[in-house]
Amino acid sequence: MRWEFQQLTAVQLAAAIAPQVPLGSQHAIMQANGGTVRARWDGIDPSATVGLELQDGGDWLQVDALILSKARFISGGGAPTLDMHFLITEP
Question: Taking CA 82 as the corner, what is the angle to CA 79 and CA 87, rounded to the nearest 5 degrees?
Fold first, then answer.
């Protein structure tokens, strides 16, 4: 097993974006920093007011990698980054 880090920046989060889920990922933990991030898990783009709100510096959110394959994120306010660590199992 190993962890892989990915960060979505404020510039990337200005429009709805999907994370690049690494091959072999089992789950991810994530946290918003510097502002809020909105998320949807159904493949539909969130907006600055619609979607699950990840608070600036809030608790880590753990998400199954299968759910992340349809996740979309956008800035909800401020200049956020979304920090994600993916747990990857290798054969």
Answer: 170
pLDDT along the chain (91 residues), means of 10: 95 95 93 97 94 95 89 96 93 60
Q: How far apart are CA 86 and CA 25, in angstroms?
A: 6
Instruction: Show the beta-strand stretches assigned E in the chain.
Output: 2-8, 25-40, 52-54, 61-64, 72-88
Domains annotated on the chain, with CATH? 2-88 (2.60.120.770)
pTM equals 0.91
Count Cβ atoms within 10 A of the Cβ of residue 28 and give its class: 0-12 exposed, 13-18 middle, 19 or more buried: buried
Residue (of 48, 38, 43, 44) closest to 8 by Cα position: 38
Structure tokens at 41: 């898990």
Distance CA 1, CA 5 (A): 14
